[in-house]
Amino acid sequence: MTAELIKIDAAHPERAISRGRDVIRAGGVIVYPTDTFYGLGADPGNPLAVQRIFEIKGRHAGQPILLLINDAGEVRDWASEIDPAAERLMKKFWPGPLTLIFKAKPGVMTELTGGTGTIGLRVPGNPLTRQLLASLGTALTGTSANISGRPSPGTAQEAAEAIGGIVDLILDGGRTAGGKPSTVVDVSADDPKVIREGAIPSREILG
Description:
The structure is a single chain. This protein is α/β, with parallel strands linked by helices. It has one domain: DHBP synthase, CATH 3.90.870.10. The chain is 29% helix and 20% strand. It has helices at residues 14-25, 47-57, 84-93, 110-113, 127-136, 156-163, 202-206, and strands at 4-7, 30-33, 38-41, 67-68, 98-103, 118-122, 140-141, 143-144, 169-172, 183-186, 193-196. The strands form two sheets. The chain has a six-stranded mixed beta sheet. Strands 1-9-2-3-8 form a five-stranded mixed beta sheet, sandwiched between helices. Helix 1 crosses helix 5 (127-136). The chain is globular. The model has no long low-confidence stretch (mean pLDDT 95).
């Protein structure tokens, strides 16, 4: 069965956002645009929905799943501590393509942390994505909307061709910026460490 597809009207996105919120709250999985590629969204507090993410992607347990949040104030919902270096990076690069890895709060699902005790968080630069997050009132899984190991989709059509038969809803916001994925920085220890260099160069992170 092919997923429901809704084109997002940038001037009036309320219908698409409302539908996305309803599907997520019902335990469904959606495809939605971010500032880099299309993401695969589920409620990170719903174990069955998170399990579906792994099944859709063909992803092995033990691989962490990052979360997108609406603003930096939500970090404390998921992270047990925020040191000054993390505060500096959040202030400088969020919203934007920077994923920060924090020590996870007790109670965060092991499936999300991959058993590492840490959780990756990002505030996306796409205003439509943040509107969806604000409507939900919680975080959203932010892994790319593809089969693991395949290219990340830059359009809703590419995502539909890859996984359109096994998700519940696709929100079409046009072509995303693409290019490099988010830069990933571990701020769970004393000194920030670049785990993956992406859209933001390491020299800007560590300079």
